[in-house]
Amino acid sequence: MTQVLVVEDDPQLVRALVINMQARQYGVDVAPDGATALRLAATRPPDVVIVDLGLPDMDGVDVIKALRGRNRAPILVLSARRASDEKVAALDAGADDYITKPFSMDELLARLRAAVRRTEDTPIAPDTTLVETTAFTIDLLAKKVMRGGHTVRLTPTEWHLLEILVTNPGRLVTQKRLLQEVWGVSQHSKTNYLRVYMAQLRRKLEADPSHPRYLVTEPGMGYRFEA
Ligand code: CA
Fold it and tell me: Within a 10 A sphere around the Cβ of 150, how many other Cβ atoms?
């Protein structure tokens, strides 16, 4: 049974979450505040955690940092609309995904399944080098991209960016992480680098670069590779 730790102080939302998750055979622990969450996580390590950022006793981001220090379980963040900085801070602290309130229960359950599935998928092994989509194929070992029977020429920077995204399929990768890994900088002022290089990648890989199907922007936050 997949054990879920729900860290949320809104009793109505908690009730809805518990009913829906138990109906789908999840085991559920509930913590109404950060201190309880950390205590519960220590006694019964969860397989996946859902954390509301607005908690009565602690900042949700600090809860995420504390959980990350001792557990690799995926963390899904619940956050109020428009709090984009908060979401980025949560992702940078080690959260895996976020859902903006109000959300549909179906969406939350789908994200939960995806998060659990990612932990069950073995990471891309060195001999599993092909990432295939209906539009293009990437050979991670040969560092080659094929599209319509032709090799796509990528600059080293484009390749590095693409490699990070495709080895994190379905997962939001923050601007900060991409900037750090590709350019070695973390300033948000450099996000224009990202926009330029993502636009180039889309021109080379997407059928309709202005409506990307594979290299998706999460506005103000980062990018996601949808296989
Ligand atoms: Ca709250």
Answer: 8
Nearest to 165 by CA among 189, 148, 145, 186: 145
CATH class belonging to 3-119: alpha beta
- 126-225 adopts what CATH topology? Arc Repressor Mutant, subunit A (1.10.10)
- Tell me: the pLDDT tens digits for 188-200? 677 888 999 999 9
How far does the centroid of ligand 1 lie from the alpha carbon of residue 20, in Å? 19
Domain limits, the chain = 3-119, 126-225
Angle between helices 105-120 and 11-23 (to 10 degrees): 60
The alpha carbon of 40 and the centre of ligand 1 are apart by a number of angstroms equal to: 18
Q: What is the pLDDT of residues 131-182, one digit of tens each?
A: 889 999 999 888 899 998 899 999 888 999 999 999 888 888 988 889 888 8
**Residues near ion ligand 1 (Cβ under 5 Å):** 9, 52, 54
